[in-house]
Amino acid sequence: MRLLIDIGNTRIKWAFDSGNDLQDVGEAVHRDMPAAAAMAFVSELTETPDAIFAVNVAGIELEKGLQQAVAGRFGVPLQMVRTSGQCGDVTNGYISIEQLGADRWAALVGAWHQCRGSAVVVDVGTAITIDLVAADGRHLGGIIVPGIDLMRAALNSDTSDISGFAGNSKGPVPGHDWFGRDTLSAVQRGTLFNARAVIEQAIEEFAGEGNTPAVFVTGGDALLVTPLISVPVEHRPLLVLEGLRLLIGGGADA
C-alpha cells in the first residue's frame, strides 16, 4: 500500500493507493501553520504504507516537516516526485521543465490519461492555473492568475471603502443574479465571474483551434466555479493524486 500526498499552497491532500484505486482519502488546511502542526494528519493515519510519494509546491519547510513526520511515524523514507519532461505519451511543454509545478504536471498527466484526447486542466486553488493538452499528449502551455481568495485579498488590502468586505463569504452565486446589491455580494460575484471568464476564454481559444477538449476542474475552490461554466466540465478533486499515481508507475503508460 502506497501513501500519496499532494502539498498545495493552502491544503494537503492524501490517499492510499491500493493498486486498483485510491482509498482513505483525506485533506487538511495548512496555510499559516507551522510545519509540524501542518503534518499532524500523519499521526492519525490508520494504514501503514510500504512507500510514500509526494508532490509539493508549498516550500521546503513543509517538505522537511513531512519528511520528519513520516520517518517518525512509519520509518519509511519520503520520495518527492518532481516535474519531468515526459510521462508516457504526455510531454511537458515548458521551455524550462522544472518551472512547471509538480502538482500541475501530475494533474495534466492524470487528465490526459482520463480522456486520451485534448484537455483543458483547471486548478482553482490559491492560484487558478489552466493548462492545455493536445490530443497526442503534448502540453501546450498554461495560464496562471490569482485565485478567488487572492483577488478578494487584493481588494481588501488595496482599497479603502471595500476593505472589510472582500474577505468574507465565498458562497456560490444563486441562479443568474449576477449583480450584487451590497459590497459583499458585489465582491463575491465579481471575483467568481472573473474566474469563470478566464477559464471560459481559455476553453474558447483552444476550441477555436479545432479542438474539442475535455475540461477537468480540480482544486479547493473548484465547486464555486464549476456551476458557472457554460460548457460541460468534469470535477475531479483527486486529479493531482491520480496523476501522481501514474508518475510513479501506478497506471498504464506511466
Unreliable stretches (pLDDT < 50, length at least 5) are none
Tell me the total number of β-strands. Answer: 12
At the fold tier of CATH, the topology name of the largest domain is Nucleotidyltransferase, domain 5
Q: State the end-to-end CA separation.
A: 18 Å
* Topology pattern, helix = H, strand = E: EEEHEHEEEHEEEHHEHEH
The amount of helix comes to 25-40%
* Number of H- or I-type helical stretches: 7
Radius of gyration, in angstroms, nearest whole number:
19 Å
> Would you identify the CATH H-level superfamily of the largest domain?
ATPase, nucleotide binding domain
**Average predicted confidence as pLDDT:** 90
* Beta-strand percent range: 15-25%
Strand order of the largest sheet: 3-2-1-4-5
Largest sheet: 5 strands, mixed
Second-tier CATH architecture of the largest domain: 2-Layer Sandwich
Architecture overview:
- The protein has a five-stranded mixed β-sheet, sandwiched between helices. It has a five-stranded mixed β-sheet with strand order 10-9-8-11-12, with helices on both faces. A two-stranded antiparallel sheet has the order 6-7.
- Helix 2 links the parallel strand 4 and strand 5.
- The two termini are 18 Å apart.
- Helix content is 32%, strand content 24%.
- It contains seven helices and twelve strands.
- The chain has two domains: 79 residues, 2-Layer Sandwich (Nucleotidyltransferase, domain 5), CATH 3.30.420.40; 120 residues, 2-Layer Sandwich (Nucleotidyltransferase, domain 5), CATH 3.30.420.40.
- Helix 3 crosses helix 7 and helix 4 crosses helix 5.
- The protein is of the alpha/beta class and 254 residues long.
- It is globular, with a radius of gyration of 19 Å.
